[in-house]
Amino acid sequence: MREFEMFQVDAFATAVFTGNPAAVLVLTEWLPEAEMQAIAAENNLAETAFVIPDTDGYAIRWFTPAHEAAFCGHATLASAHVLACEYGSTGPIRFTTRNVGTLTVTPLGDKTYRMDLPALPPASLAPVPDIFDTLFPDGWAAAFRNFENIFVELSSADAVLVYAPDLAAIDGLGPQGLCITAKGGEDHDGRPVDFVSRYFAPSAGIPEDPVTGSTHSTLIPYWAAKLGISTLKAFQASRRGGRLDACLAGDRVEVTGRATTFMRATIHLPG
């Protein structure tokens, strides 16, 4: 029997039971891919992150309950929190990835972290999928995409809040997730923000993601251009919810958020 320590962290959260939970395992080497996928499916969280040391910090991989993810922000934040609080990492923590280059997370104190992510400017979505007529019977203001998700701007923050997702129809979009967004709105504490969003990825085993760091790599460039500002406050308006403070810095996006540890566990694997 093999034993590994695993942490569950609420990312983009000021207290447990808020933000987005992620599991984190810090290893000396990768487990077999099928085993990492099985652990993620067993956890049944939006993402489980696996981290190993490499020459310039750490390498990171993320798994949803259904498959390996190309990019995940909240589980990267959770991993940095575990490395800083449980493994004594200090200063900027660098993660090499398979698809989106190097991600850097800087601890700022008080369980607050600044993430340096790639900016993924919105790309044209043409033609618009026919299923949009089913998904958005009241219409939409704009639609665009990046390499892994489709984004739809709705008419108002209220329209985002009350949106009732047809998950079977969203699954019909294929492997892409669907992010909806609108100008304005406020967080759960009533503080105004520049834009709100929600994110659905049923094909990845994630009906609705509580707070999604990676979508903001595209949302920040989109709203920065549309609003004419480079520093923005965002809120992901899921039931748990999460506030993100962000800045567009050239070809990078800086996102600041907090994290808190919910659980430390020992998992037991055969062999």
In short:
The protein is of the alpha+beta class. The chain folds into two domains: 2-116 and 256-269, Diaminopimelate Epimerase, Chain A, domain 1 (Roll), CATH 3.10.310; 123-250, Diaminopimelate Epimerase, Chain A, domain 1 (Roll).
Describe the protein in words.
- It is a single chain.
- The protein has 271 residues and is an alpha+beta fold.
- The chain has 2 domains: 2-116 and 256-269, Diaminopimelate Epimerase, Chain A, domain 1; 123-250, Diaminopimelate Epimerase, Chain A, domain 1.
- The protein is built from 6 helices and 17 strands.
- It has an 8-stranded mixed beta barrel with strand order 1-2-3-4-6-7-8-17.
- The longest helix has 13 residues, at 74-86.
- The chain is globular.
